[in-house]
Design a protein that fits this description.
This protein is mostly helical and about 160 residues long. It has a domain of about 100 residues: Cytochrome c-like domain (Cytochrome Bc1 Complex, Chain D, domain 2, Orthogonal Bundle), CATH 1.10.760.10. Helices cover about 55% and strands about 0% of the residues. It is built from seven helices and no strands.
């Protein structure tokens, strides 16, 4: 005998909404691709083997395109905390007052691993972290440079 006070359509609607929300959560949390690093042998989505090798050979070169991309990365990921009224990192770069050094590898390590564990940006894809390095170094061309052996060591061993 059916209970006239039970709203079966409400139960079914709730169950359907719960199933959709659970599926959405699983897709968002567990099925997203991770960042791509130079030492990683897996190909980034959409790149051929040749394009991936070319990407690995060019990441350390500072170009107008990489500097522009670095400015975009800074605006999207760094400017909120590191603006002129707060920490003023751009002014410190321009003045050459960098606690962890101004060489390319120094900046990349600081961006990736953070300062004492804070402000880590290892979730950014590697090319965006390198673009950020090129952008920061474009603000002060007098910063010292990393040696080729530093770059080769990074490619071989990572950070």
């Amino acid at each position: 005998m059916k209970n006239p006070n039970v709203n079966w359509s409400g139960y079914l609607t709730f169950a359907a909404c719960f199933a959709v929300a659970t599926a959405f959560f699983i897709v968002i949390v567990f099925l997203q691709p991770g960042p791509v690093d130079a030492k990683n042998d897996a190909l980034p989505l959409g790149l051929t083997t040749e394009e991936n090798q070319a990407r690995k050979e060019k990441w350390y070169e500072s170009t107008a395109e990489s500097i522009q991309r670095g400015g975009e990365v800074y605006s999207l990921n760094c400017a909120y905390c590191h603006n002129d009224s707060n920490l003023g990192i751009l002014e410190k770069v321009k003045a050459g007052e960098l606690k962890y050094g101004g060489k390319q590898m120094d900046l990349f390590t600081t961006i990736t691993k953070g300062m004492g564990g804070a402000h880590r940006f290892e979730y950014l894809v590697e090319n965006d972290r390198w673009a950020l390095v090129h952008y920061l170094r474009s603000l002060n061309p007098n910063l010292p440079s990393s040696s080729n052996s530093d770059f080769k060591k990074y490619l071989k061993e990572g950070l």
